[in-house]
Design goal:
By secondary structure, the chain is mainly alpha-helical. Helix content is 52%, strand content 7%. It has two domains: 51 residues, no CATH class; 43 residues, no CATH class.
Length: 114
């Protein structure tokens, strides 16, 4: 890591390698490679650094794999849900115009009755 911008930033900010405890990145080979990946180069400077990976990226990979195993298309399901809820919303609006809700308060209760 001779001409590494990250190393220069740490040096300029006076951060010691022994004070670095963890490294987090996406899970691609450039970052995780055993020999020349960024994590490997950091571990050469401080072998105690823990390579955490990116939980959001791992979660995304899991979700994509799960969605592909479903017996239906998720985008179709989401479209159906949208139109269902939109239809219900329009129906509710029509009902509220015909039968406006007037709030009333109960003397014995501390909450709003509709």
């Amino acid at each position: 890591m001779q001409n590494n911008p990250g190393k220069k930033i740490l040096r300029d900010c006076q951060v010691l390698w022994r004070n670095c405890i963890a490294f987090m990145s996406d899970n691609c080979s450039v970052m995780k490679g055993r020999n020349n990946g960024v994590a490997a180069l950091i571990k050469k400077e401080n072998p105690k650094v823990v390579d955490l990976g990116c939980i959001a990226h791992l979660g995304n990979l899991c979700i994509v794999k799960a969605i592909k195993s479903l017996p239906f298309q998720v985008d179709d399901l989401l479209t159906d849900i949208y139109y269902h809820l939109n239809k219900r919303y329009v129906t509710l609006q029509k009902y509220q115009v015909q039968n406006p809700l007037t709030p009333s308060y109960s003397k014995r209760r501390q909450f709003l009755l509709v």
